[in-house]
Amino acid sequence: MKWTEIDVTTTSEVVEAVSNILMDEGASGIKIDDAKDFENLHDGPLGHLGDYVEVASLQHIEFGAKVTAYYPETIFIPEILPTINQRISQLNEFGLNPGDFTVKTSEVAESDWATAWKKYYHPVRVTRFLTVVPSWESYKPQTDDEKLIVLDPGMAFGTGTHPTTKLSLISLEQVIRGGESMIDVGTGSGVLSIGAKQLGVGQIRAFDLDDVAVKSAQSNLDLNPVAGDVEVAANDLLNGITEGAQIIVANILAEIIMPLIPQAWNLLPENGLFLTSGIINKKFDEVKAAQEKQGFIIVQTLKMGDWYGIIARKPGVDD
Description:
Elements: E1 2-10, H1 15-24, E2 29-34, E3 44-45, E4 52-53, E5 65-72, H2 77-89, E6 102-109, H3 110-115, E7 124-125, E8 130-134, E9 147-151, H4 163-175, E10 182-185, H5 191-198, E11 204-208, H6 211-222, E12 231-234, E13 247-251, H7 254-267, E14 273-280, H8 281-294, E15 297-304, E16 307-313
Parallel strand pairs: 8-9, 10-11, 10-13, 11-12, 13-14
Antiparallel strand pairs: 1-5, 1-6, 2-5, 3-4, 7-8, 14-16, 15-16
């Protein structure tokens, strides 16, 4: 099969938003080359696997980011390109700056697509306890408390290394005590559900608007036996969901968090936790104020670069 590659060169700030746009338009896979992913790398054994690597020798973008999407020949590219350009240009309206972005296309062989990201993607310790590992890497935990999240980035919306995903995983790590029920809204690659299961959460239901995302999440869940009982399905936020949970987590854009706030409030019990990320600094005050107006108590805010995460709690009888 012939494939078309669409490369979007833009800012690190909009990597996840652009990835979602490209997947919405029918992409079968996403590869991300983000300069920020290499800022904290140092010369030495990469991924604790023993191969000494000099960071300067790794091929990667030096500034900003490039999001690459792969489309099968069944999709007529000239038809979707105007929509992709328009949606990226409109990100400014949501407080995200795509910069002077470019969108380019080229043909690619299927074998090249299947291996394109492997030279960029290695095990990364993203929190104190959680390490994201690509599905083809042989990696053993370095400490007794290290837990693995195995992902196939050929299917994933994110590799777990973007600040918004890290903030979500850090938030989960801070609040999980074991056995809680959880809803993962906008699950994407399923990374948060897998991480939550590794941290001890009980029942998890994961939702995403897009069927492609649901398939992606299920494929990644299947790579992690600990997440074998996670229920994943297509759904528009929490519309129509009547069964609540003790934790609701959402790593999505601020504009999508806003209508989610009352939905989460209605489904959380007293002292239930609402964890949100994907909030760009320009939108943080607005999202925080909306949660407080709803009645949530802001327990903690987290920041990484230009991104914020919020841990909020629904009040209990002692409040």
